[in-house]
Design goal:
By secondary structure, the protein is an alpha+beta fold. The chain is built from five helices and twelve strands.
Protein backbone atom coordinates (compact mmCIF):
# COMPACT_ATOMS: atom_id res chain seq x y z
CA UNK A 1 0.00 0.00 0.00
CA UNK A 2 1.24 3.45 -0.83
CA UNK A 3 0.71 6.38 1.55
CA UNK A 4 1.04 9.92 0.27
CA UNK A 5 1.15 13.26 1.95
CA UNK A 6 -0.41 15.92 -0.21
CA UNK A 7 0.90 19.44 0.08
CA UNK A 8 -2.06 21.80 -0.49
CA UNK A 9 0.30 24.37 -2.02
CA UNK A 10 1.32 22.12 -4.92
CA UNK A 11 0.34 23.64 -8.26
CA UNK A 12 -0.78 20.86 -10.62
CA UNK A 13 0.04 21.35 -14.29
CA UNK A 14 -3.17 19.87 -15.56
CA UNK A 15 -6.44 18.37 -14.42
CA UNK A 16 -5.35 14.84 -15.41
CA UNK A 17 -2.47 14.94 -12.92
CA UNK A 18 -4.87 16.01 -10.15
CA UNK A 19 -7.43 13.29 -11.06
CA UNK A 20 -4.68 10.62 -11.06
CA UNK A 21 -3.55 11.68 -7.58
CA UNK A 22 -7.14 11.80 -6.33
CA UNK A 23 -7.81 8.27 -7.68
CA UNK A 24 -4.63 6.92 -6.01
CA UNK A 25 -5.57 8.55 -2.71
CA UNK A 26 -9.10 7.11 -2.81
CA UNK A 27 -7.72 3.64 -3.56
CA UNK A 28 -5.26 3.93 -0.64
CA UNK A 29 -8.08 4.97 1.69
CA UNK A 30 -10.21 2.04 0.58
CA UNK A 31 -7.30 -0.39 1.12
CA UNK A 32 -6.68 1.06 4.59
CA UNK A 33 -10.34 0.58 5.53
CA UNK A 34 -10.16 -3.08 4.50
CA UNK A 35 -6.92 -3.67 6.45
CA UNK A 36 -8.12 -1.99 9.67
CA UNK A 37 -10.80 -4.01 11.49
CA UNK A 38 -11.60 -1.02 13.75
CA UNK A 39 -13.06 0.86 10.80
CA UNK A 40 -15.55 -1.94 10.21
CA UNK A 41 -16.84 -1.58 13.80
CA UNK A 42 -17.13 2.21 13.84
CA UNK A 43 -20.43 2.28 12.01
CA UNK A 44 -22.17 0.73 15.02
CA UNK A 45 -23.70 3.28 17.38
CA UNK A 46 -23.45 2.70 21.12
CA UNK A 47 -25.54 4.51 23.70
CA UNK A 48 -24.79 3.99 27.39
CA UNK A 49 -27.02 5.74 29.94
CA UNK A 50 -25.31 7.37 32.94
CA UNK A 51 -24.39 5.08 35.85
CA UNK A 52 -24.67 1.94 33.73
CA UNK A 53 -22.04 -0.15 32.04
CA UNK A 54 -19.87 -2.86 33.48
CA UNK A 55 -18.03 -1.57 36.55
CA UNK A 56 -15.09 -2.87 38.58
CA UNK A 57 -13.58 -1.94 41.93
CA UNK A 58 -9.83 -1.35 41.96
CA UNK A 59 -7.74 -0.09 44.86
CA UNK A 60 -9.56 3.09 45.91
CA UNK A 61 -11.28 3.48 42.55
CA UNK A 62 -14.37 2.53 40.58
CA UNK A 63 -13.85 1.90 36.86
CA UNK A 64 -16.89 1.86 34.57
CA UNK A 65 -16.33 0.59 31.03
CA UNK A 66 -17.87 2.98 28.50
CA UNK A 67 -16.69 1.21 25.34
CA UNK A 68 -14.27 -1.68 24.90
CA UNK A 69 -11.92 -2.89 22.21
CA UNK A 70 -14.43 -5.56 21.26
CA UNK A 71 -16.81 -2.74 20.33
CA UNK A 72 -14.20 -0.53 18.59
CA UNK A 73 -12.45 -3.25 16.61
CA UNK A 74 -9.44 -2.89 18.91
CA UNK A 75 -8.95 0.82 18.23
CA UNK A 76 -9.44 2.05 21.81
CA UNK A 77 -10.95 1.46 25.24
CA UNK A 78 -12.69 4.24 27.21
CA UNK A 79 -13.58 4.15 30.91
CA UNK A 80 -15.03 6.51 33.49
CA UNK A 81 -12.87 6.28 36.61
CA UNK A 82 -13.82 7.61 40.06
CA UNK A 83 -10.90 7.79 42.51
CA UNK A 84 -11.55 8.22 46.22
CA UNK A 85 -9.32 10.59 48.24
CA UNK A 86 -6.00 8.83 48.74
CA UNK A 87 -6.76 6.31 45.96
CA UNK A 88 -4.70 5.84 42.84
CA UNK A 89 -2.22 3.56 41.13
CA UNK A 90 1.35 2.53 41.90
CA UNK A 91 4.03 3.43 39.34
CA UNK A 92 3.81 1.36 36.17
CA UNK A 93 4.80 1.33 32.51
CA UNK A 94 2.58 0.44 29.54
CA UNK A 95 4.50 -1.09 26.64
CA UNK A 96 1.53 -1.69 24.34
CA UNK A 97 -0.71 1.37 24.58
CA UNK A 98 -0.93 5.11 25.18
CA UNK A 99 -3.14 6.45 27.95
CA UNK A 100 -5.00 9.76 28.20
CA UNK A 101 -6.88 11.34 31.12
CA UNK A 102 -9.56 14.02 30.90
CA UNK A 103 -10.27 15.12 34.46
CA UNK A 104 -13.95 15.92 35.06
CA UNK A 105 -14.09 16.40 38.85
CA UNK A 106 -11.66 16.67 41.76
CA UNK A 107 -7.86 16.70 41.60
CA UNK A 108 -5.27 14.16 40.58
CA UNK A 109 -1.54 14.27 41.15
CA UNK A 110 0.00 12.47 38.17
CA UNK A 111 3.64 11.41 38.46
CA UNK A 112 5.29 11.13 35.04
CA UNK A 113 8.96 10.19 35.09
CA UNK A 114 10.42 12.64 37.62
CA UNK A 115 7.71 15.28 37.15
CA UNK A 116 4.38 15.90 38.86
CA UNK A 117 1.28 17.19 37.07
CA UNK A 118 -1.39 18.69 39.32
CA UNK A 119 -4.50 18.04 37.24
CA UNK A 120 -7.76 19.93 37.90
CA UNK A 121 -11.22 19.67 36.31
CA UNK A 122 -11.06 20.26 32.57
CA UNK A 123 -7.37 19.33 32.31
CA UNK A 124 -6.18 16.73 29.80
CA UNK A 125 -3.04 14.59 30.14
CA UNK A 126 -1.62 12.31 27.43
CA UNK A 127 0.85 9.62 28.52
CA UNK A 128 2.70 7.84 25.72
CA UNK A 129 3.61 4.19 26.12
CA UNK A 130 6.99 3.38 27.62
CA UNK A 131 6.99 6.09 30.31
CA UNK A 132 6.70 5.36 34.05
CA UNK A 133 3.69 7.01 35.62
CA UNK A 134 1.22 6.83 38.49
CA UNK A 135 -1.62 8.92 39.83
CA UNK A 136 -3.20 9.68 43.18
CA UNK A 137 -6.19 11.66 44.35
CA UNK A 138 -4.57 14.24 46.62
CA UNK A 139 -7.83 16.15 47.18
CA UNK A 140 -10.54 15.69 49.77
CA UNK A 141 -13.34 14.75 47.33
CA UNK A 142 -13.69 11.95 44.80
CA UNK A 143 -11.89 12.68 41.54
CA UNK A 144 -13.49 11.57 38.28
CA UNK A 145 -11.80 11.21 34.91
CA UNK A 146 -12.42 9.67 31.54
CA UNK A 147 -9.49 7.46 30.64
CA UNK A 148 -8.78 6.58 27.01
CA UNK A 149 -6.42 3.71 26.20
CA UNK A 150 -5.27 3.15 22.60
CA UNK A 151 -5.07 0.63 21.20
CA UNK A 152 -7.52 -1.40 23.27
CA UNK A 153 -6.68 -4.53 25.23
CA UNK A 154 -5.84 -3.21 28.69
CA UNK A 155 -9.45 -3.67 29.77
CA UNK A 156 -8.68 -7.41 29.99
CA UNK A 157 -6.23 -6.63 32.79
CA UNK A 158 -8.94 -4.84 34.79
CA UNK A 159 -11.38 -7.72 34.26
CA UNK A 160 -8.78 -10.19 35.58
CA UNK A 161 -7.51 -8.10 38.49
CA UNK A 162 -10.32 -5.86 39.76
CA UNK A 163 -13.53 -7.01 41.49
CA UNK A 164 -16.94 -6.68 39.78
CA UNK A 165 -18.80 -3.74 41.33
CA UNK A 166 -22.21 -5.07 42.29
CA UNK A 167 -22.86 -1.85 44.23
CA UNK A 168 -21.16 1.08 42.53
CA UNK A 169 -22.22 3.43 45.35
CA UNK A 170 -20.44 1.53 48.15
CA UNK A 171 -17.19 2.90 49.60
CA UNK A 172 -14.25 1.75 47.47
CA UNK A 173 -12.01 -1.05 48.72
CA UNK A 174 -8.29 -0.43 48.96
CA UNK A 175 -5.50 -2.75 47.82
CA UNK A 176 -5.52 -6.26 49.25
CA UNK A 177 -2.83 -8.95 49.04
CA UNK A 178 -5.11 -10.94 46.70
CA UNK A 179 -5.55 -8.00 44.32
CA UNK A 180 -1.80 -7.30 44.32
CA UNK A 181 -1.09 -10.96 43.58
CA UNK A 182 -3.56 -10.97 40.67
CA UNK A 183 -2.03 -7.74 39.32
CA UNK A 184 1.52 -9.10 39.47
CA UNK A 185 0.44 -12.33 37.75
CA UNK A 186 -1.58 -10.63 34.98
CA UNK A 187 0.69 -7.65 34.23
CA UNK A 188 3.17 -9.36 31.85
CA UNK A 189 0.31 -10.70 29.70
CA UNK A 190 -0.85 -7.12 29.09
CA UNK A 191 2.58 -5.55 28.56
CA UNK A 192 2.53 -3.85 31.97
CA UNK A 193 5.53 -3.43 34.20
CA UNK A 194 4.50 -2.75 37.80
CA UNK A 195 7.10 -0.78 39.70
CA UNK A 196 7.59 -0.54 43.48
CA UNK A 197 5.74 2.33 45.18
CA UNK A 198 7.85 5.44 45.81
Amino acid sequence: MMHQIIDPLIDFDDETEWEDLKQTTQQSAAELAIETPAVQQRDQVKYLPADTGVAYWGPGELMTFLITGEETGGAFFLADVSVAPGGGTPPHIHSLEDESFHLLEGKLSIQVGGNTIAASPGDFVYLPRGIAHSFQNTGDVTARAQVLVAPAGLEGFFVEVFEPAANRFAPPPYGSPDLIGRALAAAPKYGLELLPPR
